[in-house]
Design goal:
72% helix, cell membrane, membrane, transport, 2 strands, 13 helices
Length: 337
C-alpha cells in the first residue's frame, strides 16, 4: 500500500465503514432509513455517548474509569429515591445526583494520584462499592410511585413533570422532526468537550499529561489537579446520563444500566479510529457512539439474535482498533525508514 493510500485509509477508513454500515442496513433492514429510525438511534446512543465522553476525559490524561456505569445507575436510583421516598423537587434530585457524581470522581482521583492506586483497580473498586450501596436503601428493589416501604407504608412521592421533561420532551427543531431532550444534551456536551479538549490551554495540558506525565510535570503543570478534574468530569457526566435515563423511564429501575459501561467504553475506544486520531477525542467518541447505535439498531431490525449483538460489537471494536494502530505503526515505520 503506497503512502497516499495508507494515509487515506487511516484518516477516512472508519467514516467510510460507518457510511457503508448505514447503507447496508438501509438496503437490508426494512424501515432503517426512515427519519423515525434515525431519531431512535440518536436517542438510544445519547446516554451512552454522554458516559463515553466522560471516559474520554480520563483517557486523555492517561487514565481509565470503570465506575461510570455504576455512577449512572446510582444517579438513576438516587434521583428516584430523592423524589419518591424523600418527596423532594426535581431541582434537588438533579443537584444531589450531580454532587454525587463529582464526589465519586473526586474520590477516584484522590485514590489514583494520592494513594497511588492503579486507575483500573481504583475505579473497579468504586464500581463494586456503588453497585452494593445503591441496593441497600431499597434492599435491591426498584423505586416507583406507590411502592411499599419497610414500615408498611406506601411511598407518596412522585416523579415531577419537570424531571420527566428531561427524558421525554421532544424539540421540533427541523423539518417537523421531533428531537428528544437527551439527544440535544448529548450534542451540546459533545461540542463543549470537543472545544475544551481541542481549543483551550487546559485541554492541551491534559493531552500533554496523557502523552508524558513526567514531562508535563517538569514544565510546571499541576498533574494531580488535572487528573482529579478529569475523573470529576467523568463522574458528573455519568450522573447526567443516569438522570436522563431515570427521567425517560419514570422509575428507579436498578437493572436498566447493565450495559452502560461496556457500550460507553466501546464508543470511547472506537473513537481512536476516527480520522486517524489514534488518541482519545470528543468527536471520535461521538462518532463511536453513533456507530454502536447504528450497529445495534440495524441488527435488531434484521431480527439478529440478541446474544449475537455483544459478539458483533466486540468484533467491530477489535477490528477498528487493530486497523487504526496497525496502519498507524506502518505509516510511522515508513517515515522512520
Amino acid at each position: 500500500m503506497n503512502k497516499n493510500a495508507l494515509d487515506f485509509a487511516i484518516k477516512y477508513g472508519f467514516l467510510i465503514l460507518l457510511g457503508g454500515l448505514a447503507l447496508f442496513f438501509s438496503l437490508y433492514a426494512s424501515g432503517f432509513a426512515s427519519p423515525r429510525s434515525a431519531v431512535f438511534i440518536l436517542q438510544s446512543v445519547a446516554i451512552t455517548g454522554i458516559l463515553a465522553l466522560g471516559v474520554t476525559c480520563t483517557l486523555v490524561v492517561g487514565g481509565f474509569d470503570l465506575s461510570i456505569g455504576s455512577v449512572a445507575t446510582s444517579a438513576l436510583m438516587l434521583s428516584a429515591y430523592t423524589m419518591v421516598i424523600l418527596e423532594q423537587s426535581a431541582f434537588v434530585a438533579v443537584a444531589v445526583c450531580l454532587l454525587m457524581g463529582a464526589l465519586v470522581g473526586l474520590v477516584n482521583g484522590l485514590l489514583i494520584v494520592k494513594m497511588r492506586v492503579p486507575d483500573l483497580l481504583a475505579t473497579l473498586g468504586m464500581m463494586f462499592l456503588l453497585i452494593g450501596l445503591q441496593r441497600i436503601p431499597t434492599q435491591g428493589n426498584s423505586i416507583a410511585t406507590g411502592m411499599s416501604l419497610e414500615d408498611g407504608s406506601v411511598a407518596e412521592g412522585t416523579f415531577s413533570a419537570a424531571f420527566l421533561w428531561l427524558g421525554r420532551h421532544r424539540f421540533d427543531l427541523f423539518l417537523d422532526r421531533l428531537v428528544p431532550v437527551p439527544v440535544v444534551v448529548f450534542l451540546l456536551i459533545a461540542l463543549l468537550i470537543w472545544l475544551f479538549l481541542g481549543y483551550t490551554r487546559h485541554g492541551r495540558l491534559m493531552y500533554a499529561i496523557g502523552s508524558n506525565e513526567r514531562a508535563a510535570g517538569l514544565v510546571g503543570t499541576n498533574v494531580h489537579r488535572y487528573k482529579i478534574v478529569a475523573y470529576m468530569i467523568s463522574g458528573m457526566l455519568a450522573s447526567v446520563g443516569g438522570i436522563l435515563l431515570a427521567a425517560r423511564l419514570g422509575r428507579g429501575d436498578i437493572a436498566s444500566g447493565n450495559n452502560l459501561l461496556l457500550d460507553s467504553v466501546a464508543a470511547a475506544l472506537i473513537g481512536f479510529a476516527v480520522l486517524g486520531a489514534a488518541r482519545p477525542n470528543a468527536f471520535g467518541t461521538a462518532a463511536g457512539a453513533l456507530f454502536v447505535g447504528i450497529l445495534l439498531q440495524g441488527l435488531t431490525m434484521m431480527n439478529a439474535p440478541y446474544y449475537m449483538q455483544d459478539f458483533v460489537k466486540g468484533a467491530v471494536l477489535v477490528a477498528a482498533l487493530v486497523f487504526t494502530f496497525y496502519l498507524s505503526s506502518r505509516r510511522g515505520g515508513r517515515r522512520t525508514a
